[in-house]
Write a structure and sequence with these properties.
It holds the Pfam family NmrA. With 299 residues, the protein is of the alpha/beta class. The chain is 35% helix and 16% strand.
Length: 299
């Protein structure tokens, strides 16, 4: 175990004594990154999932089964943990959890000292309960658009070499999901983050065209950008099976991006000690998803 100032430690920062952290939503886009960052920092990780047999998490992670919508199922998982990473939704279509107060009650009883909450984009009983509690050190993580959202373009890029999107001039300060995990890992294991609300962004503002150009450079291929009208986009989303409330959210988010989503802040560097990763870095890491050979048409 490494302690004190250690140049081999992640980011050259002070390492705290090894702690055991419970990560909920551990198989999700952000949860996997929280797990990876905690492991890299030398901590023990317990990962909560509704199906432990299909979790596919790194070696060394203790995978336990539980369901946030049934909070008492967390009792064994909370035993012996010092920190807890929480998501605010459960069940289909990201329905807000209604079990937040009970989850927090169980966490307090288990002796959890630090909690991070991944903000779900709207009000939740869980986040409200955590914010109102002065018995634990909590931080709320409020990331803007995930760089991983670009994976939604992978199939159409592989099949046709193009991206079809509306509102292509919209600006985004999109964030690498690994940086969200890094901020969470620090807040869960180090002092000085209690009561913080961390807006987390990438280091630059990008249009849809900028993203497509960076993907093309990373993949070594041409990718065309086709701008859709709002009506064409709605038809495309409906054909993809998106519920009407999701379509309404996308129209608002893309057509009238809130200021917080198009404003770069330096939270990643302040909290972790290193600069936020760029979309070009993300694109290079995921280039294979956009260059796979399209399946052959049936004879």
């Amino acid at each position: 175990m490494r302690t004190g100032f250690d140049l081999d430690a992640p980011y050259g920062r002070v390492m705290t004594q090894t702690q055991k952290i419970l990560v909920t939503g551990a198989t999700g886009t952000v949860g996997r990154q929280v797990v990876a960052e905690l492991l890299a920092r030398g901590h023990a990780v317990r990962a909560l999932t509704r199906d432990a047999t299909t979790a596919s998490l790194p070696v060394g992670v203790e995978v336990v089964q539980g369901d946030l919508t049934e909070p008492d199922s967390l009792i064994p998982a909370l035993e012996g943990v010092t920190g807890l990473h929480l998501i605010t939704f459960g069940g289909p279509y990201f329905a807000p959890l209604e079990s937040g107060p009970r989850i927090l009650e169980l966490a307090r009883a288990a002796g959890v000292r630090r909690i991070t909450v991944l903000h779900g984009g709207g009000p939740s009983l869980l986040e409200d309960a955590v914010r109102a509690d002065d018995g634990v050190d909590w931080a709320v993580l409020m990331p803007v658009e995930f760089m991983a959202n670009a994976l939604e373009w992978a199939d159409q890029i592989v099949a046709s070499g193009e991206v079809r999107e509306p509102f292509v001039s919209r600006l985004s300060a999109m964030v690498h999901e690994g940086d969200i995990g890094a901020v969470a890992a620090v807040a869960l294991t180090e002092e000085g983050h209690e009561g913080q609300e961390y807006v987390i962004t990438g280091p630059e503002l990008l249009t849809v065209g900028d993203k497509v150009a960076k993907l093309a450079a990373a993949c070594g291929r041409e990718i065309a950008l086709v701008e859709l009208t709002e009506e064409q986009a709605v038809a495309q989303w409906r054909a993809a099976g998106h519920p009407e409330e999701v379509i309404g959210f996308l129209i608002e988010a893309y057509g009238n991006t809130p200021e917080v989503g198009r404003t770069v802040v330096d939270t990643v560097e302040k909290v972790t000690g290193r600069r936020a990763r760029t979309f070009a870095q993300w694109a290079a890491e995921h280039a294979d998803a956009f260059t796979a050979t399209a399946p052959a048409a049936p004879a």
